[in-house]
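# nightly structure sweep
# worker-07 picked up a monomer target from the shared queue
# config: single-sequence mode, recycle default, output format = structure tokens
# input follows
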Amino acid sequence: MDTNSWALGLIMLLLAILVWRSGCRCQAGRSWMLEKKVDSILKHLNIEVDLSPVDREILDLLKAGKKIEAIKLYRARSGSGLKEAKDYVEQLQG
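# output follows
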């Protein structure tokens, strides 16, 4: 009986870790989606917002023709996935 309790506890712990990790990925995706929505609203209302230092660095890399480096920089700073970073950089590119 004691062995079953340990096995059940271990399984519950592993499930909790899996749920927690999937939640972390969801939060990153949600924040990216919120950012895109806010950007769309600002664009629709013709409101200009001062760019962050990271955005300026990304724009500088884009002007130098270094799109891949710009995507890598955004991924490193934001923790986003490849597709999200590529979409963000392309949005900045115009």
